[in-house]
Amino acid sequence: xGKNISNRLLEEExxxxxxxxxxxxxxxxxxxxxxLLTKLGWPLxxxxxxxxxxxxxxxxxxxxxxxxxxxxxVWGIGFPLMSDLERFLETQNERVLFGLSGxxxxxxxxxxxxxxxxxxxxxxxxxxxxxxxxxxxxKELKKxxxxxxxxxxxxxxGSHDIDLMWESISTWKETGKLLVPQxxxxxxxxxxxxxxxxxxxxxxxxxxGWFLGCQAKNSLEIKDAQADVISPCEKSYRVxxxxxxxKYQKIWEAFDRTxxxxxxxxxxxxxxxxxxxxxxxxxxxxxxxxxxxxxFLRMINTALPKAILENLNADVIAHxxxxxxxxxxxxxxxx
Length: 335
Prior knowledge:
335 residues, alpha/beta, Rossmann fold, 6-stranded mixed sheet, 13 helices, 8 strands
């Protein structure tokens, strides 16, 4: 009976994602994914697919994905990332820190929520938090953000309490106890504020953020494709932002692994962010909108040079189309 079940899984589930005909949600080649899986200890993709099919397949905590999420996210990013996390759990005795980077609205936060829910379902000690959980409280954040040329209430390098973040990570590394603040972006009419603290004891911690992993460089050293569109005021303030970004480097250096959800078209973040804010308005009754949202999008497009947002020193890169489909999975590290 067990053999018959296994054969049925192979026929009905395992061969469908990349066999002929391909699963209708999956448009990317299996080449990059197979290279990644080999690095993760799965030389035969069919065994890897069976491993995840037996644990629920696309049904595993499916309600945690936003409505309309395609199977390419599950098979192309979700399960590969979970496999990488599991590999560390199985081979490392020390606590492990992962970084997950991607432009606003690309889907990294939803991915993080699914990872944590799936890990809990499978009894894996994995937690996912956001860089944005470490925003300063509203009153302090308001002072820090005063005078920026976009008038945004948060999100820029410098709006996070890096000292607190470093202390939280260091304490967790030493003791296993993780204590982090929580930030609700719907509070203060969409400007956001802290809303409590969260305590947990993960062995693997994933941190996600939109400029996570960006290397601080002298703005004069960066070939800036935006030179013709940013204003003198924005260009001047960018110097301050890059100086603030230096403070984040010790966090980036602490990562054992970094994954980058890279937009094939940088301008996609404009559409994604608008969709994200509309959803927040619908579900929470508060969001950035109108001129405030326009200013926020302007900031995303001009505050940091696109070159440092697009060329992260990541171990794995998943290329995301404007429609949020997976185009390609690229492996750069993973030894």
